[in-house]
Amino acid sequence: METVSRIIILLVSATLLNMCSDPGESYPEAVKIILDTDMGSDCDDAGALALLHRYADLGLAEIIGCIYSSGKIPYGAGITEAINIYYGRPDIPIGAYYGDEVGDTVDKMTAGKLVRDTVAFGNSIIYNTDAEEQTRLNRRLLNEQEDSSITYITIGHTKGLYELLVSEPDDISPLTGRELIKRKVSRWIALGALNANNEGNYFVRDWNFFFNETAPYTGYLVENFPVPVYYIDAGTDVMTGKSLKHTPPGNIVRTVYRDWLWEVQKYTLDDQRPSWDLAAVYFAVEGTGDFLENTGRGRLEFDVERGSRWHRDEYVGPEQYFIQQKEGTNDSFADYLNVMIAAEPVRSSD
Question: What is the pTM (predicted TM-score) of this model?
Answer without folding.
Answer: 0.92
